[in-house]
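User: Show me an example of a complex going from sequences to structure tokens.

Assistant: Sure. Here are the input components:
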Amino acid sequence: MKQFIIVAGMLSLVAGQALAADMEAGKAKVTEICSACHGMDGNSPSHDFPKLAGQNEDYIRNALRAYQTGARKNPIMASMAEPLSKQDIENVAAYFSSQKGLFVKRDN
Amino acid sequence: MNKSALLNLFFFGLLLTSGSLFAAEQSSEATEADSSGSSKIEAAKRQGEIHAGTPELAPGNPVVGKQKAFMCKGCHNKIGYKTAYPKVYEVPRLGGQHAEYISSALYQYKNGERQFTTMQNMAAALSDQDIADIAAYYSTAEH
């Protein structure tokens, strides 16, 4: 039981860390790296680059990791994603998803 | 998809573009064709770099696309819908996305350059016109 509590405690710590996105740091990273193509708030002015404003966090996180591992191939994005830490990815994903832009179409 | 296949696709795109330029030259003043020609080739080059494999797009019809998107809606028109396999994550929001990007993604799934089993199966069944229409539907502003 004691062991279980310790393990559960450690897990919740890890989970807590994974969820703690820093919005200001995300904005700074976006300004530095992403904004030239995707726009400051993720509403990319050029149709050559996807909009990321309002995209869900989960999808952005997954896409950046896929570019890092090479599962998703794009020479531009591979070099952009390469230097990002796990925390950077959390921050950038949280920042873009909090902006106003993309939406879910509701008609069926 | 390997590099040489990508290059082939790129040159095929250029060939298509130069073909249409040639036709334009036949029917209009040479100077006009030259100016529009160089910008068209520049555009094709940019597309080749960024959206390799995307043929020149037919104009998409969002109203037709709304009907054709019946297969897409099961996942992409539900808030918070998640993939089940091989990884669990929320599917992308497509409303308001650039039509060109949606088309490019569908072509990349279709030619295997981008790999995700569900989307590869979906894209395999779509014609160029289907892709243009569906992209037009998702890119339009109204919810």
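The lines above are the inputs; the final block is the predicted structure for all two components together. The mean pLDDT of chain A is 89.
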